[in-house]
Write a structure and sequence with these properties.
Chain A: It comes from Fonticella tunisiensis. Chain A: It holds the Pfam family ABC2_membrane_6. Chain A: InterPro entries: ABC-2_transporter-like. The complex is a heterodimer of chains A (about 270) and B (about 260). Chain A has about 270 residues and is mainly α. Chain A is built from twelve helices and no strands. Chain A has one domain. Chain A is globular. Chain B has one domain. The chains are: A mainly alpha (about 270), B mainly alpha (about 260). At the A-B interface, helix 2 and helix 9 of A face helix 2 and helix 10 of B.
Amino acid sequence: MIIKYLRIAKVEFEKTKEYFLNFIGQIIYLPMQFLLIYFLWKFVYSYNSQIGNYSFNDMIEYYLILTIVQSAIMPVGIITYEEWNDINQGNLNLYLSKPLFYPFYLCYRKIVLFLWNIIFGILFLIFANITILPWLKITLYIYNISLFILSSFLGFMIMFNLFFIVGTLTFWVENVLTLRDNVWNMIKIFSGEILPIAIFPSFIKKISVILPFQYIYYTPISVLQGKLTNEQLLDSIGFQIFWVIFMSIISLIMWKKGSVNYTSQGG
Amino acid sequence: MIKKYIRLFKRFIVISFNQVYVFRFEFAMLLVHLLFNFSFIFIFWYTLLSIIPIFNGWQFSELALYTSIIFLGEGLGGIFFGFRDLPSKIIEGQLDKYLCRPINTLIAVLFEQVSIIYFLEQIIMSILLIILILLKYKISVSFLSILISLTVLVIGVLITNFIYGILTFLCFWVGRLEVVRELIMQLTGFKQYPLTIFPQKIQLLLTYVIPVAFVSYYPTVFLLEKQEMTLVFVFKLLIYLVIVFSVFVSVWRYGIKRYESNGG
């Protein structure tokens, strides 16, 4: 049981060359993205020295950490396409006939990628903190880095389940790709991807509280930035665990019901 | 000749519509998708303007209009969507099927790829939104300013997409260059914000090198009459269009001669 999954991990690690190039690609884009963020927020902070509990440095740091969390979590978004493709093209037969549990197989492959990117991301952050961006003064201790990795992993699991649920809908509605794009957009608004949730107007904050999206990016970033008190930290990680369990149950129920209806087309 | 292309274009619209409409659920989701695209930028501006009262002389209504004009430009530019995957087609030798058709190769590549229905929806929604904002916030605009704004926008869309096309065609010589192309086109992200918040040198870069200001800032300031259109501006814009178009055509012509159909 364990050996076959170790082999899958080995295959995924063999692909790390490609991942590494992707990572480098993202790093190349960083200066341009940061130039834009820098000018925008420099302009905004010329009116106010503090926005919510974010100083100018905090805000730049927020977007820097966001880029790292995104590089680790975002690749999971392809799950919907892979699932949609496997179901519609009949490739699912291949997996169903193997001694593999398809949802776990999909998740496991992406975990390997997540670990690779988050480790490189943290190394990049340490490097940037020492060399190119020392003025940001990012506090990096083993304690908050460990909590950051844990929180990012839980965020990753929430994202995986979201896109897996959308992909599983293919059993009933055949084309789910624009629905997936809409989920992307919801994540964009409510996960802290555009702006930190704390500075949004109260009506968006209220909506975010009842949705799982802020636990994808905003919580891990806040953990690393040390923006949460111990109580808030426990609450946030508790909510992340709750959403992971809840959504995993939904994913498995949907998969069970959907895969029964599956008819192989062209497989 | 033109009739043939109009007929072809109509066929592509029908095919594009059928591709989407066959999945009713997908069709509905497309509309929701567009609404989302608009909404999160509005939320961004709304939030920012709740932090600072006025954004470099721009009010929320004007920024909403600014965003709608950007979306209109993106909708119009949708016709060039096919450039995105052209490098793969060239490298994998997939251009063969277009080369043996009795129509212009570039037009065939572009028309086949574009989701016409999606971009038509985007254009219609952007126009409706512009009208709605003008009415709701009682912004008065003259017919002339609409005409100037629209002309600058269309020329801007052509210029930016020709530049994107030129960068894409370079793959005839250097193979995969999407990372470099996207790196340069990352500058288009700057169009989301009014030009005047950036330092002077960046403003020049966004006006003359990667001229994204022509698809966002200038059409809006001309519509709102925040800036007067001068003859020098018209002259510069037209010269720019002619130069970029000439380079675009030349690079395509030389590039297609180098096409070797690897594995095609």
